[in-house]
Amino acid sequence: MKLKCTVFILLIMTCFMYGQKKPLDHSVYDSWQNIGARKISNDGKWIAYSVDAQEGNSNLFLYSVKNKNSKKFPRGTKMEFTNDSRFGVFQIRPLYKDIKAVKDKKLKQNKLTKDSLVIVDFSSGKTEKIPNVKGFKIPEKGASYVAYLLENMKDKSSDDASDKDDGDEKKDDDKNSKPLQLVVRNLLNGKSTTYDNVSRYEFSNNGKQLVFVTKKPEEKIKKDKKDSLDDKSADKKVADKSKPKKYTLQTVQVVDLQTGTVNKISEMEGDFLQLSFDEEGNQLAFVGTSSAQNDLVKLYQLYYFNFKNNKKEIVANDHSQMKKNWVISENRLPIFSKNGKQLYFGVAPKPVAKDTAMIANDHAVVDIWNYKDDYLQTVQLKDLKNDLKKSYAAVMQTEKPDFFTNIDGEDLDTLRLVNEGNAEFTLGITSFNNRISSQWEGSTKKTYFLIDNKTGERTEIIQNLNGAVAVSPLGKFAVIFDREKGKWFSYNVKTKKILALNNEVPVSFVDEEFDMPDFPDPYGIASWTDNDESVIIKDRFDLWEFFLNGSKKPRNITNGFGRRNKITFDTYNLDKDIKSLNRKSSVYLSAFDNTSKSNGIFKTSIHSNADPEKIQMENVWGYRSLQKAKNAEEYILIKESYTDSPNIFATSDFSKQDKLSNTNPQQNGYNWGTDELVHWTTPKGNLSTGVLYKPEDFNPNKKYPMIVYFYEKLSDNLNRYVAPAPTPSRLNISYFVSNGYLVFTPDISYTDGLPGESAMEYINSGVEKLKQNPWIDGTKIGIQGQSWGGYQVAYLIAHTDMYAAAWSGAPVVNMTSAYGGIRWSSGMNRQFQYEKSQSRLGKNLWEAPDLYIKNSPLFAIDKVKTPVAIMSNDKDGAVPWYQGIEMFTALRRLGKPVWLLNYNGDDHNLMKRQNRKDIQIREQQFFDYYLKGAKAPAWMTKGVPATQKGKDWGFELTDDKP
Q1: What's residue 942's pLDDT?
Q2: How many other CB atoms are found less than 10 A from the CB of residue 5?
Q3: Please, are residues 435 and 447 in contact by the beta-carbon 8 Å criterion?
Q4: Which helix (H) or strand (E) holds 312?
Q5: Which of 274, 373, 594, 700 is the most buried (most CB within 10 A)?
Q6: Strand partners of residue 262
Q7: Cα torsion 642, 643, 645, 648: sign
Q8: 931: closest CA among 920, 923, 919?
């Protein structure tokens, strides 16, 4: 009998063990997947999407909507469909391990396999692979052509971009790139034409023309061994930088792709760049220089060609319309207006050459800060590279190409084209005379002008505006938002009259939940309607139509349905060529339920007076990711939830959605989790919401440790997928939940002047609410926050001892010293952070020193009883890293358990993946020790002395106590 019982128990235990799912560990990160780039062909019959690993090879999938099947292309990237939807073109990258080996200098660049080009013919089903390709281009709207450069496999020094990150699309235009063979193929008939020694090339949008620049290869200097050993003067002679080094001969040629005719339009020993066609391919502009390669200041000319009218114009720097001591800029791409009647190009003050004869050791190196400067020296130095390349717009009337107008100026911040450049004016924006106050305001008041493209005359729209101005698609009106008034206005370009839009509308059009000591931001413009008749503006929930000429009263086009149901609506921009909406046509609206956090899509028409029609609402995130086929009612979108990994779906009507991908099937083998909303009332009677994450194997009869992670408001993320990943320093929620923790993310609302107390009110009361559940171990609760969250962690432990452990990333602990600090990523001073922005004090340091002290954890740090780990990195671009040092040294002085991690050379949020992986392990070990009673690692018990840095990481677990 005993034997039978034993066997029965063993069988039950075996079934239980096999039924259990394993917890996540730190080895899973690299292979965890996400949906990357995705596209749908213009006819809606083909869908391309990438499934990307966090670290490793990506896979490109091509899906047939008709046949409902996919084909996988390992390492496929940069997918493009031809305009006629008959072909797919993309590149195949080398293996990730080989790219990494090059970066790690374990493999020579010239040993790396080059990219391949893949062409898929959807009609025949054939796939062609072309090796050793460096980049390709296809016409955006034209016929089925592809052009690509072939690597020079004989040149072992050939520069290659294969080890660079994706996205470096302009590498073909690198000024230092070597000329390669260009292949131009007509995909419909398969015919190819090759051109040698090509350095740059561009299609016209309509695919009728191709321009390319050839560069005569530089002659190699041949030397025998005797020369290389004995004739050192020859080397010196070659390297003599005092002599002009001319460019090799370059030629600009244009191919008529319909006839195959090649026309040489310009040639010289120089450099041509910034190639740009007009919309129809009838006009071409570019810049070029005949200066020497080693000239400190190169002088450029603008070249303009009209192939239809056989016109040519070269705009030189001595042109009569050019300002004195101004020149053509090579740093701005010439842009034609949509109708081709105007050409916008760049001019700039002539650069001043650096004195290369100056001996550096004889002169001081000093930054001179002047209180009258528009911008602090730190901002100037941060922007120096861009400022040295800054150009200003001029515009040519292409019917009279020998005439142009300077429409930009050094006083302007920005110049915006109107009606895709077709308008006879541009929008000029300046913060001149208001820039100094950005130090404490954070933003600047701006003046807006309409600038006449033919005369340069400025017409002021509004002066010293704290807000924004947008011009309607056709340029008939400008819409003004005034932050200080919280009001919208229209400006009639023809009559120059300003009209108030929302004076009589009984809802707010600014952020109703805004809780900073500044004027709230608007919800913004959703869309425009055809012929500039009206503008669609958002309130918190609904969409409103305002008639720009004031001829009709404002209309709530969602009929108040959003506010009644707490659903936030927005329009889509599903076709970049469509700039406005037809008032009578049906439009899709994205919908977000602010109560349940569900997401979906509705349908309405702008002129309708009815409630919008619900098409689909789901407990997912992703309907804002919607994309549409240009010429068909076919759509793709990404959907995800906390339990469901992001996947791509295809649909034609949203009632039936086909799931195309299956990311992260391995998740089913791990103990995942669930999430749910939590609601409570704070001690001051304020309602709040948070999200509680529980392990998948949650047992209400057990007691669980809990980590509270916070920033500001996070509950809208209820349906976001949280991939297990080495984070920049946020809490790795999925990892901790899988390993038996509860995680709670409470929303926080703030009172001006009391950010610390506000955090205490919301976080602590939410935790106390949850502690009423018997399955929470109230003695084993930790807190974690990064940046603003790190500050709140520090404040909490200085004012309460209810937490067993704390992790504070990049905290500010002393607002008095941080107030005058610099945000090194932008160069801006931090004063605005306290007076107007996130730190929410609303006063300067001299008005209210008590507020700065009261809200600074450092001044109550002696009350801390909670063990705390700090991350504060020496290249933090947002928070002065000495704030972490102040916190650490104060707690160390007081004998409190504290640790500081400084990831050398890393930023406010960790950017280096190896550091992200490292901090995940340390954070897990830290919380496991204090909240689970696990052994402590050596880095916590005995530390890692500087002599062992890079040799011992201190991860091993010990029996010692910290």
Answers
A1: 96
A2: 9
A3: no
A4: strand 311-315
A5: 274
A6: 255
A7: negative
A8: 923
